[in-house]
Fold this sequence. Notes:
Chain A is an all-beta fold. Chain A has no helices and 11 strands. Chain B is globular, with a radius of gyration of 13 Å.
Amino acid sequence: DIQMTQSPSSLSASVGDRVTITCRASQGxxxxxxxxxxxxxxxxxxxxxxxxxxxSGVPSRFSGSGSGTDFTLTISSLQPEDVATYYCQKYxxxxxxxxxxxxxxIK
Amino acid sequence: ExxxxxxxxxxxxxxGSLRLPCAASGFTFNSHALSWVRQAPGKGxxxxxxxxxxxxxxxxxxxxxxxFTISRDNSKNTLYLQMNSLRAxxxxxxxxxxxxxGLSWYFDLWGRGTLVTxxx
Lengths: 107, 120
């Protein structure tokens, strides 16, 4: 099975900072990658699908890139409401799999 | 309103069974694949099981294969997860999640979840 590894596992950044989270697949998955945001005590929310397509209603400061095995989620200017855990998910083939999550905090 | 609403969670003893329904509303139920995703307390997301729009196939994570059964009733707009031989490690918040039309297996709509606790 393909494993998804995120880095870092947590980060602390200042408001306005550019934040980058990495997700690596153990085998190539083309662009079949999604990113989710889960705020504390809340339901996961889809941010990005097909590696770089922004879900409707998601702020444009979020962007995704990558293909094959290496992917990134970027927050161009971190806001207080972005405090959350972020997960990547591969969906090219069964079994679908999530990364272990990256917790983002405000410094 | 477009939503998924899980129910049926609770406290069950190891070895016991539970059935989780997920009622859908506000969208064309039989046009979407559906999945169950769980989250153990303080842990990350784990995909559990999936079923296509017609309900003619199903897929399971190795951790639940042979114990859990996913099904759907398109006439009632409801997804189900039958959980048998429950173990302590099945304790989690169980989410029902929808995939967009076209069988892209990411999740664009999530329910609020129902908590399953397996303990004696």
